[in-house]
Amino acid sequence: METIAKLHLALLLILLTACGGGGGGGVSSNTVVQQISAPAVDPCAVTTVTPAFPNSYAGAFTNPTPSTRFPNSIVRMIDLKDYYPASLPANSTCTDRTLIARNRFTLELDRLKALGTEVVWIVNYGPWNDINQVPWQFDKARFQIPESEMTYFVTQAKSKGLKVYLGWQMWVTDILGNSYPYGANLTATQMTNVMLAHRNIMNYLATYANTTGIDGLAVDWQAFNPSNLSDPTIKEIYISNLSTTIDQIKSSFTGKTVIGFNGVIFPDLRLISKVDMARISLGANVTSLQNQTLDVSTVKTAFLQSITQSYAQTGDLTQLNPSIKIEFQFAIQSRDKYFVDGWVEDGFCVTGPANEPCIQTTYTTDFSVQAIGTEAAFQATLAQNLYSVGAVTTGVYWHTDSIIPGEDATQLDFPNLSASIRNKPAENIVKYWYSKN
């Protein structure tokens, strides 16, 4: 045994000497030195930047100081811009639009988490195959956000402790070039076709949302409403069909259901009794004279008037559903006359009343209007006593840091005018109100 122990010791000394051990710092001539290279730079990486923009964008008014925070019982929500980031151009070193879209989504979720957001609203849409069919059929391969990328987004959000609510944006066009009259008076037959098509897509989305772990689903649509929805016949077609659609959604989706995504809420038992949340979209209007000296108090009063008007239409929804939650949604654009003229298109150029080829270029960007409006909207939310508010949604949040029109898009969009708070003074106001007590 002693001989074996000596042999082990001798072998150990040989190994230590060969490896530079045993007190030596040298490297033997037989040692291979491994070169450690720097990590490869991701050509599709996306980083937060502080964008440059003209001083004039700051606006005409003093930005307000946030006054308080929402109580912890109010859920903090954010609407995302209805663009898929892959529709934006890749950077100069990246040609993989899917990868850069994923990176943009991931960075955006990090920003929203830091903002205090708890729920992220995301929208999907796509054309129909043929609107002459009844009901209209869809091809999920044509969705703006591919199913695989929507799933990726949900997975990333979940990993960051965020919930995801999904809404569908109703299109009235098909891949053949046919279209329904947008915002026009629909016939009973046309309205029925719309409702059947909506049910068709919602049954698919309900199953997909439940499988993917999406937390909430809008039972109605965004961006399309016939102008005669209050007509008794058209209204009944809408309510009765939507009621059946909600039943079918709830048969396959176990998450929260939300009504009012299209800005319309009929206080009908057939609808309200079946959903978990009602979204109240609120705006505010001031006179041109008031707009010259805009301040939080003036806009707060305007929002309180808007809440009163909304309540006159909806009434106390808890009488129809004692457990229903109310979501206040605000989308305040950063332009000088937003509270006078209301919302304008911010995604692409439209022809103006005097045949301006791109009327958006005639508008004045004003971040201070948005900041004042955001503070005023939040103050009005706490000051009103008509609705018991369970959630507040701010939007829409842009997918890139760019603020200059056309800097980061394949089309001439206008993040400078949009309701996005990203990189604008209103973002700090939202962050303060969204932080927990």
Could you explain the architecture of this structure?
There is one protein chain. The chain is of the alpha/beta class. The protein has a single domain, classed as Glycosidases (TIM Barrel), CATH 3.20.20. The protein contains eleven helices and eight strands. The chain has an eight-stranded parallel beta barrel with strand order 1-2-3-4-5-6-7-8, surrounded by five helices. Helix 2 runs parallel beside helix 3, helix 4 runs parallel beside helix 5 and helix 8 packs across helix 10. It starts with a helix and ends with a helix. The N terminus is likely disordered.
Brief overview:
The protein is of the alpha/beta class. It has helices at 2-18, 97-115, 147-159, 188-212, 232-252, 269-272, 288-292, 296-314, 338-341, 367-383, 425-434, and strands at residues 75-80, 119-124, 163-169, 216-222, 256-259, 277-282, 325-330, 389-397.
For the record, the CATH architecture stands as: Alpha-Beta Barrel
Label the structural class.
alpha/beta
> What is the distance, rounded to the nearest whole angstrom, between the alpha carbons of the first and last residues?
72 Å
CATH superfamily: Glycosidases
Q: Helix segment count?
A: 11
Shape, principal axes of CA atoms: globular
The proportion of residues forming helix, as a percent range, comes to 25-40%
Strand order of the largest sheet: 1-2-3-4-5-6-7-8
